[in-house]
Amino acid sequence: MESQEMSNEQRQQDFAERLRRIEQKKAGAAEQPAPQRPSRSEPNNTYGVPKEDNTVRNGIIWAFIFAALGAGGYYGWHAIPEDLKQAVAGLTSSEVNSVASVDVDATTEVAAPRPVESDTMSDQGPLFASPAVAHQGTGPLSLNDIATQIALPTGDTAIGALLPFARNAQCDLRNPLPTEKVVNVRIETALLPAPIQAFSDQALAALLLANIEAVTKNGKSAVSDARITDQKTSLDVFLTDTSAPLYLVLQNLGPGVIWNIHSAPNVTVAHVAIIASSFSGLVAPPNNATFEALLVPDFVAAHSFGADDEIRPCMIRPWRNPQPDWIGSIKAERGNTLYENQMSSYAKGYAAYNSWYTATLGVDASTNLVTARDAAHVLVGPQPSEPIPYRSMAGRDVYFMQTDHMIAGDTATRQAMTERLHNDLLVAAIGGDASLLDPAVVTRAAQ
Amino acid sequence: MTGIRILIAIVGLIVAAPFIALNVWGINMSLWVNEVTAQNEAVLNGETDVPVVREMPSNPLAWLRNRADVRDMFDTDTLTDSRYVAISEIVTLEDLLAADETPPAEARIPLYAAARAPARLIRYCEDIIQSIGLSCDLHYSEARENRQGKIELRGLLRFIPASPLGDPSAIENGTLIRTAAQLPYEGNLLPPNDAATRRAAMTQAQDICDQVRTRFGNCVLANVTIDVKELWITDLEALPAGTNPQRIDTLATFVVFAAQDQMNANDLRDIVRSLVTP
To answer: Is the ipTM of this complex over 0.85?
Structure first.
């Protein structure tokens, strides 16, 4: 019994001892927690735990980052070409669609709006879509201000006869008489439609050759239906200057133009000289004025950049002298190298042209000049007190520089004739149908 | 985490391997070029007689590019750009026109010549199917006026070979090796430009290729260029009357698919030379 009591007492002591060790262990664990990976399911509660203060270190790092960004941004911005910079600025500007301003105020250069091409101003000067009228003044002028009974030409206008005439074989023009006043119109492109197409046989053959070689050289499956059309456009020239008989010099740098002269009462057109970059024509002029024409490609090779920079005999490509209000000039002024080169080349081209012009006609090419890049109507002289009756192209004969294919008529007729010309020549050149361009595979006969 | 790192490393290595290989090859090529240049300079300076040029380093990625080449070269079911006969012809404008046809205006002559070249050049397919090909088509044609005012027509005629090409499929790590050889002719005068001579030249080229195939298991007569030259009047005056003024110069290109460590272009060139001029 005694041994049993001792045994019980011993067990109780042992149990008490274990409890004490457990208590000690727990107390020790609370004082020195063993390092262990925090469980994903248990939030790592660090609230209230004092943190290390890294403000100075972080401040230095961020200062370096901002300094690098600032320096990079500064030098990068200055390395970007001016036009790209303007484009980027334009993307962030709410004034992209505002009217272009050509005034550059040096004191507010940064805030000055970038020059933007618009419906009325291009890199190469003003644009005068109908009914706007180009003239020597600065204010806006509308066709209704200067003309009455207006009947603008269309692609379907029925003209009289299309009369070919021979262009000048020599690089020369009739000398203006001392009593005559030289007036100039110089544009790149006319903006009114005209029911006339004209192109040389050489141009037609070159286009068809390209279409054929696309099959024979490049493996296209069919001959392209690309067509040469050379649709002409027309320009109204209103003459109101009655101070002297006019020697009118009509010049263009772009596609062929049908010039239509409208003269006010008491205006005398003494002579019309045309300097055209492509096949062009003249609606039978008032008063049966004499006329002549030079075609630029007859005397000057196709243009490549810088080719007209040097003054030389018979440089008759009618360049327009860059003006300060051209967007190209403004961009050049702001340091855009592309436009600097372009405007410089235009200026040199104009100088070379003016040299020939002055030697030929005895006056400067800017004499009494009305110029625009594109125009539909041009007024040479003062605004008339009474609108001038519009001299419609309908029913009038049109004189046109002689070339191989001259087509007049409504749109459908001209398209049909153009198509027939192409097809007839294609079949004639191949000597059969187009399948001959891609012969069938030749196979050895079975033995 | 470790798995992702290993995966990134493997992908990186796979992506970088071609660039590393190309860089190593590029360095080897530079060293090879320097070596060849130095040896050539030594020859020019009289320091040695014959340059000892080691084999050009092979492009480690050539196999990648060559697969399509091999397929096109050995495909006998379709006409491919890899096998063609380059033909030329010198004609007058009248040769291109029908008997009663009015000559075109000067500005239209290039157009007429280009437009009629295909019908003229497809006739040479007959030479091909009579000699080396089972079928033939005109792949390219052009026309231009030469200094003598005549019109030179040039065309590429693709063909499917009549002879077996051999089997390249058993060759591992192979590459297309090509060499060109001018076909010989007797005497000082190039052979005349007539159908029999052209066909004989093509057959001769195919014979050479057949012998190469016997040795290496495959050979493709890839290109035959028949260049037409016209004798000067002064040359003709010294020749018998009626001599054909147009002569042909024939260059044949042979292609063998071989293991890179067993053959190179120099080996093939030497073999072909020995067969062309035994």
So the answer is: no
pLDDT digits (tens, 9 = 90+) for A282-325: 999 998 899 999 999 999 998 888 888 889 999 999 999 999 99
How crowded is the C-beta side of B177, counted as CA atoms within 13 Å? 27
Relative to beta strand A388-389, strand A147-148 is parallel
Q: A254 near A233, Cβ under 8 Å?
A: no
Alpha helices by DSSP H, B130-261: 195-216, 233-237
Chain A and chain B share a number of CB contacts under 8 A equal to 85
Q: Does residue B161 have a cis peptide bond before it, meaning omega lies within 30 degrees of 0?
A: no
Q: Kindly list the residues from chain A whose CB atom is less than 8 angstroms away from the CB atom of residue B98.
A: 431
Q: Do A442 and B115 touch (CB under 8 A)?
A: no
* Cβ count near B162 (within 10 Å): 16
Summarize pLDDT for B226-264 with one digit per residue, the tens.
Answer: 999 988 888 878 788 888 889 999 999 999 999 877 888
Given a contact cutoff of 8 angstroms between Cβ atoms, the answer to whether B248 and B198 are in contact is yes
DSSP A7-68: HHHHHHHHHHHHHHHHHHHHHHHHHSPPP-PPPTTS----TTPPPP--HHHHHHHHHHHHHH
Contact with chain B for residue A426, Cβ under 8 A = yes
Q: How far apart are CA B94 and CA B102, in angstroms?
A: 9
Task: Determine contact: A432 vs chain B, CB below 8 A.
Answer: yes
Given a contact cutoff of 8 angstroms between Cβ atoms, the answer to whether B242 and B178 are in contact is no
pLDDT in tens, A104-123: 344 444 556 677 788 889 99
CA distances from B191 to A77, A255, B88, B92, B196 (A): 70, 54, 15, 21, 10
Distance, CA of B182 to CA of B185 (rounded, Å)? 9
- How far, in Å, CA of B131 to CA of B142, rounded? 24
Q: What CA–CA distances, in Å, run from A54 to A51, A57, A61, A62?
A: 9, 5, 11, 12
Angle between helices A201-216 and B109-121 (to 10 degrees): 20
Q: A444 vs B104: CB contact, 8 Å cut-off?
A: no
Residues B138, A439 contacting (CB under 8 angstroms): yes
CA distance B134 to chain A (A): 5
Residue A135: what are its φ and ψ, rounded to 5°? -155, 180
Please enumerate in sequence order all residues whose Cβ is within 8 A of that of A148, keeping only pairs 6 or more positions apart, or say none. A387, A388, A389, A390
The answer for A443, left when phi > 0, alpha when psi is -120 to 50, beta otherwise, is: beta
* 3-class SS of residue A365: coil
Amino acid at the residue A76: G
Candidates A200, A429, A432; nearest CB to B111: A429
Which of A219, A425, A442 is the closest to B135 by Cβ?
A: A442
Amino acid at B102: T
B126 closest CB neighbour out of A426, A428, A442: A442
With beta carbons less than 8 A apart as the criterion, state whether B161 and B129 touch. Answer: no
